[in-house]
Amino acid sequence: MRSLLSFLLIGVPVTLILTLVGLTHGMIEDSQQRQRGSGADIVVRGTNAAAAINFSGATLSEAFVDFLQKQPHVEAAIGVLNHNIQLPLTITGIDLDRFTAMSGGFTYLEGGPFRRPDDMIIDRYYSAERRLHAGDTIMQLNRPWHVCGVVEGGKLSHIFVQLKVLQELDSSTGKLSQIFLKLDNPANTAAVIQALKEKLPEYPIYSMEELTSMINVNNIAGLREFTWVVVGIGVVIGFAVVCLSMYMAVLQRTREIGILKSLGGSNGFILGIIVVEAMLLGVGGTILGIVLSFGAKWLIHTFVPASIQMAIVPVWWPLALAITLASAMLGALYPGLRAAHHDPIEALAYE
Amino acid sequence: MSDGSIIEVENLHKIYQMGRVGVPALRGVDLLVARGEFLTIVGPSGSGKSTLFHIIGGLTLPTSGQVRVAGQDLTAMTDSGRTLLRKHTVGFVFQRFNLLPNLTARDNIAVARHIAGMDNKPDPYFEEVLRLLGIAHRLDHKPNALSGGEQQRVAIARAVVNRPAILLADEPTGNLDTVNSAAVLDLLKNLNEEYGQTTLMITHNPDLAVYGHHTVHMCDGRIVERT
User: What does CATH list as the number for B5-226?
Assistant: First the structure.
């Protein structure tokens, strides 16, 4: 029973660590996948766009779209406007015909394209999260929207409205957040970017590969530090659990320790037994934590599939094991040394 | 001191400190035990028998005096040195058997071999001891499935498995009925006779002294008689 409780108490912080890491990776992968889903080869952003994963703000003139459309090798150019609603969700204003031409179009699971100004297209993840279907009404931006279509996910955003409508609502008529360019041949990407940078030196212009590579842990302020804080908490909890568990074990087994010492068991031998048991608790707790992280993923995917995405990150399993074993080792030292230095006569007389 | 003695004790004192009060357990014990001797030590509770055992077995240090076991000066030994003594030179049999409750009889014995650094290869001596003890068919049972007599026989097997020079048995029949007591005492006697195992046995029952070659009587921390 003590061991099972220890597994659980060690497993929970392991799950916390793996869930946090999984959330980070999942949301980054989802964001990267949706950017690629636009079908664009190049992204042009406003002059004040600083953060890699902040796509809101309307600082690009719509006139740029026509200008960029005319550049060599540019097959299609579309401008989008983003409006953050509740982090990390964004409503994206698009010109549906142009977006279809660039991305290959939506795959409709329910309903169809925009027909009315208040029409909204949502992907299946947002549909599942909010339990919405085509024909339903949803309040966003302080006004009701008519869900006209539910589409397969993975294309730029979870929520779409018509560009003109969103521009008007945001008082950003003629303004855009980003412009996506599709080239006649992706092999021309570097050359086109070079040419555009010469013409628009103040504008951040990225290939899709560059942009998606910028969407990583290092570019989300404080996330890396936060991750290490959670790891630190996991270490402390693991240490405390193992220390308490092994302290109890040493108390319960005082007599057995005396027996081993009477047989010639050295201090190192006794300490080794305690440490090995603690290591086994650490391994068991880590395995349980990994299993629980699958449960966390299932819960997240079931209840908030659009807002939060969690990935299983096996590369962190050995790291989680190492963190747990380090905690277990530290936690076992005091009880282990206490056991090793038990007076054998007192230990043998222990009831 | 005698050259033929495996245990040499001279003017041994042991005082247990109980708070600020010193409680003398041994008050100047002198004892010689010859190699291969079966010595019984009898005396009432509190006479110092167990303390003498614990010192000879390297479980605790004397307050003063000299103790040599198998040629080694215990008073000059470090804790590690006394651990080695228990590992290779001395085997213990206790009144309460002191088997590890979660291990089978076989594993209880194997632990002693493991601690002593012995491998698991078949050992004719050990097989013969098992035959002598009559527990070969009970080795896969845990202590709670064994009778008191069987547990004590397992404890004896564990004590002698590494062929220690000295076997210290502290009231080995204290928790056994008369039939099992006789069986255990016969085993100790046989081990002594067949393998020349030097054996010291504590008992508070003077009638059991007949199993030993000699008997030492202790009272109030002193040896008062040797017969």
Answer: 3.40.50.300
Six token digits for residue A225:
């530090």
With vertex at residue B116, the alpha carbon angle to CA B114 and CA B121, rounded to the nearest 5 degrees, is: 55
The pLDDT tens digits for B88-113 are: 899 999 888 899 998 999 899 889 88
Contacts of B208 (CB under 8 A, 6+ apart): B40, B42, B173, B181, B185, B201
Q: Which of A258, A264, A267 sits opposite B116 (nearest CB)?
A: A264
Query: What does pTM read for this prediction?
Result: 0.73
Alpha-carbon gap, residue B178 to A295, rounded angstroms: 61
Among the partner-chain residues A256, A265, A343, the one whose CB lies closest to the CB of B115 is A265
What is the residue extent of each domain of chain B? 5-226
Distance (Å) of CA B161 to CA A333, B109, B150: 32, 7, 16
Cβ of A262 within 8 Å of Cβ of B88? The answer is: no
Enumerate the residues of chain B whose CB falls inside 8 A of the CB of residue A260.
100, 111, 115
Question: How close does chain A come to B200, measured CA to CA in Å?
Answer: 16
The ipTM of this complex is 0.88
Partner-chain contact A256 B101, CB within 8 Å: yes
Smallest CA–CA distance, residue B92 to chain A, in Å, is 7
Interatomic CA distance for residues B100 and A20, integer angstroms = 43
With an 8 Å Cβ cutoff, the interface of chain B facing chain A consists of 54, 57, 59-60, 79-80, 83-88, 92, 94, 98-101, 111-112, 115-116, 158
What is the DSSP pairing of strand A143-151 with strand A108-111? antiparallel
H or E element that contains A35: helix A2-36
User: What is the average per-residue pLDDT within B68-73?
Assistant: 90
